[in-house]
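Lesson 9: reading folded outputs for more than one chain in a single document. The general rule is that every protein is listed as its sequence immediately followed by its structure tokens, and records are never interleaved. Here is the first one.
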Amino acid sequence: MARTPVKRRVAATWPFRPTVRYSTQVANALRLETYGGIVMLLAAVAALVWANTPWASTYKSLQTFEISPHWLHLGHMDLQHWASSGLLAVFFFIAGLELREELTHGELRNPRDAALPVIAAAAGVVMPALIFLAVSAGEAGAARGWAVPTATDIAFALAVLAVTFTSCPAPLRAFLLTLAVVDDLIAIAIIALFYTETVHWTPLGLAVVLVGAYGFLQFKDVRSPWVYVPLAVLAWYFLQRSGIHATVAAVAMGMLTSPKETPDGRPTNAERADHVLRPFSAGVCVPVFAFLSAGVGLGAAQLGAVFTDRVALGVIAGLVIGKFVGVLGGAWAAVRLGFATLGEDLHWHEIAGVALLAGVGFTVSLLIGGLAYTDQAQFERVTTAVLIASVLASAAAAVVFRRRVRVRARPD
């Protein structure tokens, strides 16, 4: 007898449970990057509002509320650290899944097709870092934050693209997606290489063994999540203890998750993991991280401190100017030198809009900012700078995309 699709079984079994239907609809919505970006933005706005009320001290108390059971041997971990090291691991696991998907079935499968977004992404990392270093030169300890303006927030960027460019061609969205996935991979490599101060080799070795075991079981097509969840949690734990940021293990396991098709047409391991975890990442992990990181004062004194701090100015210049010059310049050079071609349904004005949108650096920029600057006042200025730059980049990209909507709507 043919198997009944899962969705039909649920609907037939629970017709009297509207909460099941609504929760399914919410989960499906959160699987779209657009809605995830909106939820994250709302969480950030809520944090900003709370941090600028007379009850701002309670927000700070929440941020720094410590949950550090001594038996875990993880040191001092407050809620903000749990969000950046724990919850964001789910976000980066999804990034690893996306990268594996792109390498297996997507834009990165064909080297010539991949050249345009990959070169643009690489240039979009280098140029912001150079601009940041130039603007912040001479400030003590400023160089530690060179990577803050190098990352693009894919959820936020796709939300802006969906709202402002309603007639967006599919190749342009694919270009932005691939660029952001490569951007995330580079960011993870940067965190592992440049923001690890002390390495404890025994827990690192255990983490590597556990990640290897995860990959071996995926290769053998083991499908039970009850096998993988303990492995993932233990790999996260030991990598966190090793001194390397635990999100590195998450990306590695995401990339090792098997996309191999099954003979009976069941979802692959990668598809199942993405289906289950993406709503949790978009609806809980990233918004909670944003809420616990984005709450900074926006009074005259705080904003004045940002615009007189060369580190903060370097972040703004790197994201708004560096990302635009790097992504657009990298794409132009790739086409000009014959490494890539511009698709038939793409236009340089639209690539320029995406280059501006790449300056929306939120999740990973705030993560790197927290790793680079342990001084709370400096971190808050950097956070404010990231928020300002993201707003400016979004506004500039919106202007370009709205104009392209009108151009595409004109009759030939």
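And here is the second record, again sequence then tokens.
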Amino acid sequence: MKVLLATEKPFAAEAVSGIRDILEEAGHELVLLEKYKTKEELLAAVADVDAMIIRSDKVTAEVVEAAKQLKLVVRAGAGYDNVDLKACTERKIVVMNTPGQNSNAVAELAIGMMIYMSRNCFNPGTGSELSGKKLGIIGFGNIGQLIAKKAVALGMDVIIKTDEIKEKHQRWNMTFSFDKLYSSCDFISINIPATPMTKGSVKYEYLVQMPKGGCLINTARKELICEEGLMQALTERPDLKYATDIAPECINELKEKFGNRVFATPKKMGAETSEANINAGLAAAHQIVKYFEIGCVKFQVNK
């Protein structure tokens, strides 16, 4: 089978080499499309491939239409909102992600953001410590669980917002109420996918309930945040802070109005470690091999 590695933001050389070894050992051909600049380059590259590995690259309906032989798309990472699932499903193209491979990198970034915001963005002045603070976690998958473990190691109290069976998370404090979570926690960490149900779910009426000095941490998706509500909450509460790995549309206005109370990475950095880069790429290659060898669809997201 012909496999396209389409990465506008390339994998590390070690990851590409590993992906090639895994695929070629299984008898597949690897084609590289790295650092491409235009949609037309991607459309041309997918014309005759059977599978493709992507990162944040967009697999739109147009790409699906151009990929006449495509059978499988693997998103090297957890989120897959950059793939048109409807178009793929209509063509019977299997879409997979690689959950867990980037999780530790994202969890470490979330903790790093908490420290950075607590210490006045490393500017002069008295900051505060994480120890003894309460952390609320929304989304308790691989990333949420790792954040919780690291936070506890730093002396934080963790509260999980969950609708799941209590016995599953016996070791953690839990709440079924957004109001209680926001009103109780010094930090809130957002770790959920962007879906029709979750988009805009982080809103004004919750944010203004946070304790004095409260800080929202978002390493998930910008669409989860109601930007108008965030702006209003930060305006009314000069003690609130916001740190995000995905700059909102209004980031320039936020920075102008609120200065160091708002921080956004220059680009999405959650998975930007050499370890996560390699892990996700190799996992994607292994999943492609298993799919064509035994029909394994364990990580399919468009069932």
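What the second record shows: DSSP finds eleven helices and twelve strands in the chain.
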